[in-house]
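job 3f2a | input accepted
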Amino acid sequence: MPEDTVTAMQNNQTSGYPAEGSREMMDAGVFYGRKKSKTNPKMRPFVLANRGGIEIINLQKTEELMDEAAAFIKEKARNNGLVLLVGTEPAAEVSVKALAKKLGIPYVTTRWVGGAITNFKIINKRVEHLKTLRTDLASGALVSKYTKKERLEMEREMNRLEELMGGLEAMTKEPDLVVIIDPILHHTALSEANTKKISVVALANVDADPDKISYIVPGNDKARKSIEWFLERVGKAYEEGVKLRAVAPAAESAAAPAAPKAEK
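job 3f2a | predicted structure (264 res):
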């Protein structure tokens, strides 16, 4: 599929379409959909055309919906909402972990632990157990209490928990928002969020069900560059919200009326 043909199709949608944003998304391959046979009929409004048997996602729709999702993320961050970032595919793992650590938010990059949301209290106990194991093994406090074999088993348990739940240490409560890359792959995470009525922002291809996603961003959810484009927008929105959270108390303080002077 010639890229210049797709570019012309995207840019000809409307004269008001942001050319710079279009180029950025084009370069990232955000427009690549799935085969027509795999497309969810509910996603048809986001499909521009079909070329070579592959659905072409309308990047104008993607940009509009990304803006809506970013505004929602920004508001959640401003109100101190807890955001959980989920992306386990190889193309997403490194970028998801890097962004989550930068923002200081919980994440899942290996495998979704069943009940991470719906059985939060139980999962949280396992996370606390992980912290205790890590501290005790690092301090050498277990040397006199357990045999070498027992300590080795504890180390193995710690490593297993670290891989599964290490990213959930920052999840001190049920999340207020779950950001998912590829909701088809992470259908369990999506289902748990829906069960608990937690809002979901998702980068989703045309095979997804938009009715299950609060803020859907139609786009290629398998390619590394496309995922990085999405995460960059997510991170920027979150950081803007945090900045607003920081200036809000100062603004409120400045707006508060001065206390009356005491009479002499």
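job 3f2a | The CA atoms of residues 88 and 111 lie 6 Å apart.
job 3f2a | closed
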